[in-house]
From TrEMBL:
Entry protein name: Probable phosphoketolase
NCBIfam families documented for this protein: PRK05261.1-1 (NF003616), PRK05261.1-2 (NF003617), PRK05261.1-4 (NF003619), PRK05261.1-6 (NF003621)
Lineage: Bacteria, Bacillati, Actinomycetota, Actinomycetes, Kitasatosporales
Enzyme class: lyase
Organism: Streptomyces buecherae
UniProt superkingdom: Bacteria
UniProt domain Xylulose 5-phosphate/Fructose 6-phosphate phosphoketolase N-terminal: residue ranges: 9-372
Family assignment from sequence similarity: Belongs to the XFP family.
Domain Xylulose 5-phosphate/Fructose 6-phosphate phosphoketolase C-terminal, chain residue ranges per copy: 589-790
GO biological process: carbohydrate metabolic process
């Protein structure tokens, strides 16, 4: 005898959740189409329709369905929950639900929860001066920008880390599920500690279609899909159908089952402790509903509901097509708005019966406005870690190794509060940050073998060979009110360039919203950089991430190029506890010269640009030439060039300048930290040649300074895509940034030297030729290069 399906919803609960769903669907349709007449108090006319119809209907009914059911379980269980909307343009749905639960009107007082507010809600959607068509910073309750697909799960796990009482419901669109980042995002459950972390409930929403094609997972046989999801470590619960009453009951049962299992897994793990706990097989929900459900079934004789045609705007040309206009009116009335809203446009109490109160509402949870929860990061005094510099350029240290000790102690200082993590794609030790393992192991929930090192169930260092996951985890962590750092090989940070774009845009918009509280900055440490990837070769040599990111909002981006170990410590002090920024720090891990005592390094980083008077020969006079550097290897080459000029052209007045804060080169009108023109000109002069050795592509410096006085005198050397497997010094020679080339540039550009210093120039050129022959015979750099130090 067949068992009847579970019926967890009473008639009253079923009616309540269905009313909310219908109301949200009505509001979603209204946002896409209506310019006026929000309650249909008069016959729909062309004047009531927006001139440009924008937005996406197809995913909205499913998103509204999930939101309605999450309301019920949050209220019934007093859950602390947020939700992440993975399907790209689900804006109409989430905005509708936030307006219904009152969160929207609390942060936007000009959009009250009544007829006038509904009219404004409809008008502003995808309208000039209004709100975007996707879930964005403007949407209360969101930490996930829906404009780009693939990051919902990594954001969800990032939010759940170190939030033991938080549930993150992550709605994964079936189009989104085809992206590479989402495919690796499923593995977040192998890093989720059931003792100290919260829970992620993935809800895979299969409505069958993308813009114009079927989706891969929706067309897979259920057994094959189950095998895939179980292989990812999940226990799938299936909900499917097109009868609303049946689907409501199925989804309610699935949610109750999933939440019961999550609670049981957490209770068992927490009773045993992290060391003894094993990785649970976490539940997830597979939700199959028709695309564009409850919308027009046919338009102009073509099927629409449950096809790709419902993806965006099912009915078009309404101002010119009376038949389509009538279809829209019938569609809106099918939700029976008179049952949902009173005569003033306010949601009826029967609609809001399951809506949680206060901060339990999905649109108001403080975890989705992480700045409300953020605490200052307890940073130790960097002087405890500083290396002694008795004489500039006489000793060497590995900058990132010293930084690792500082990060170790930040982890220790946050051990109880658990609000700081280090992320990286299997490169923490490679990047010389391994001291962090003394404070925290690497988070890991899979099997641990005797040969493994530094793995820990409760570890707060997260490594996975997926830059997408590391970035997404960190973003989710920051957006929910915590701090962190992402360490990566410089060349491969490009993998997440698009994600960094989206985060930069999120920060820019959030800064303009008074109700969005500032969050901790996203800190990148780019090491194993272009100039010391001589052993790995051309594929590992690319400093271009900086070029891309400086295009973003100037209030958001900072780029630091510390020349030595103490400067890196000072940069860390300046960046780790900042707000609403993306801080990019490019620093070496190989032994490099120590130039500045720690106090001088602190002042240097504070200034951003400094004249190193002890390195130059222009004391008390105007310089004949300025030698400038930005980056550790460029600094070494400039210092070596200055030493050569001191020896061969002792009467030449040389000024040595070091740039640690790249954005200081921009004028103040282009960047808030830009040097005033007077300060820039005092450092670089207006009429003297400037030979500038830069860490990255040289054209960026020209772009940043083209409006500065004296730009015509600026000559920049940097990486110009000449690389291979070779020696460290050959990298700078190949790219014409070596000390000998810099001396030749000085001779070529200082008036008169081309004639009087021709012998010196020839000698420098001969050294380059000698270098070329030497490395091919001996496989290492010239002794005078290997053994050079500042004198």
């Amino acid at each position: 005898m067949a068992t009847a399906p579970p019926q967890p919803l009473s008639d009253h609960d079923l009616a309540t959740v269905d009313r909310y769903w219908r109301a949200a669907n009505y509001l979603a349709v209204g946002q896409i189409y209506l310019l006026a007449n929000p309650l249909l108090t008069e016959p729909l006319s062309p004047d009531h329709i927006k001139p440009r119809l924008l937005g996406h209907w197809g995913t909205s009914p499913g998103l509204n369905l999930v939101y309605a059911h999450l309301n019920r379980v949050i209220s019934a269980r007093d859950l602390n929950a947020i939700h992440i909307t993975g399907p790209g343009h689900g804006g109409p749905a989430t905005v509708a639900c936030c307006w219904l639960d009152g969160s929207y009107s609390e942060v936007y007082r000009d959009v009250p929860r009544d007829g006038a507010g509904m009219a404004r809600l409809f008008r502003q959607f995808s309208f000039p001066g209004g709100v975007p068509s996707h879930v964005a910073p403007e949407t209360p309750g969101s930490i996930h920008e829906g404009g780009e697909l693939g990051y919902s799960l990594s954001h969800a796990y990032g939010a759940a880390f170190d939030n033991p009482d938080l549930l993150v419901a992550a709605i994964v669109g079936d189009g989104e599920a085809e992206t590479g980042p989402l495919a690796t995002g499923w593995h977040g459950n192998k890093f989720l500690d059931p003792v100290h972390d919260g829970a992620v409930l993935p809800i895979l929403h299969l409505n069958g279609y993308k813009i114009a094609n079927p989706t891969v997972l929706a067309r897979m046989p259920q057994r094959e899909l189950d095998d895939l999801l179980r292989g990812y470590g999940h226990d799938p619960l299936h909900v499917s159908g097109d009868d609303p009453r049946d689907v409501h009951q199925q989804l309610a049962a699935a949610l109750d089952t999933a939440l019961d299992r999550i609670a049981a897994h957490q209770q068992e793990a927490r009773s045993r402790g992290s060391a003894a706990a094993t990785r649970p097989c976490w539940p997830m929900i597979v939700l199959r509903t028709p695309k564009g459900w409850t919308g027009p079934r046919e338009v102009d004789g073509q099927p629409v509901e449950n096809t790709w045609r419902s993806h965006q705007v099912p009915l078009s040309g309404l101002r010119e097509n009376p038949e389509h206009l009538e279809q829209l009116a019938a569609w809106l009335r099918s939700y029976r708005p008179e049952e949902l809203f009173d005569e003033h446009g306010r949601p009826r109490p029967e609609v809001l019966g399951h809506v949680p109160s206060g901060d339990r509402r999905l649109g108001s949870n403080p975890h989705a406005n992480g700045g409300r929860l953020l605490r200052s990061l307890p940073l130790p005094d960097i002087r405890r870690y500083a290396v002694e510099v008795i004489k500039p350029g006489a000793t060497l240290h590995e900058p990132t190794r010293v930084l690792g000790a500082l990060l170790r102690d930040v982890l220790r200082a946050t051990d109880e509060r658990r609000d700081f993590r280090v992320f990286g794609p299997d490169e923490t030790a490679s990047n010389r940050l391994q001291d962090v393992y003394e404070a925290s192991g690497k988070g890991w929930q899979e099997e641990i073998l005797p040969v493994d090192e530094n793995l820990a169930r409760d570890g707060r260092v997260l490594e996975m060979l997926s830059e997408h996951n590391c970035q997404g985890w960190l973003e989710g962590y920051l957006l929910t009110g915590r701090h962190g750092l992402f360490s990566s090989y410089e060349a491969f940070i490009h993998i997440v360039t698009s994600m960094a774009n989206q985060h930069a845009k999120w920060l820019k918009v959030s800064r303009e919203l008074p109700w969005r509280m500032p969050i901790a900055s996203l800190n990148y440490l780019l090491t194993s950089h272009v100039w010391r990837q001589d052993h790995n070769g051309f594929s590992h040599q690319d400093p271009g991430f900086i070029d891309h990111m400086v295009n973003k909002d100037p209030h958001t981006i900072r780029v630091y190029l510390p020349p030595d170990t103490n400067s890196l410590l000072a940069v860390a002090q300046q960046t780790l506890d900042t707000r609403d920024r993306i801080n990019i720090v490019a620093a070496g891990k190989q032994p490099s010269f120590d130039w500045l005592p720690v106090e001088d390094a602190i002042h240097h980083v504070h200034r951003g640009v400094s004249v190193w008077d002890w390195a130059g020969t222009d004391t008390g006079q105007e310089p004949d030439v300025v030698l400038a550097a930005a980056g550790d290897v460029p600094t070494m080459e400039v210092m070596a060039a200055a030493s050569l000029l001191r020896a061969f052209l002792p009467k030449l007045a040389v000024r040595v300048v070091n740039v640690v804060d790249l954005m200081r080169l921009l004028p103040p009108r282009d960047h808030p930290s830009g040097l005033p023109d007077s300060a820039y000109e005092a450092v670089f002069t207006t009429d003297k040649p400037v030979i500038f050795a830069y860490h990255g592509y040289p054209w960026l410096i020209h772009r940043m300074t083209y409006r500065r006085a004296g730009h015509d005198n600026l000559h920049v050397r940097g990486y110009k895509e000449e690389g291979t497997t070779t020696t460290p010094f050959d990298m700078v020679v190949r790219n014409d940034m070596d000390r000998y080339r810099l001396v030749m540039d000085v001779i070529d550009r200082v008036p008169g030297l081309a004639l009087t210093a021709i012998a010196v120039r020839q000698r420098m050129n001969d050294k380059r030729t000698e270098h070329h022959a030497y490395i091919r015979e001996y496989g290492e750099d010239l002794p005078e290069v290997r053994n050079w130090s500042w004198t």
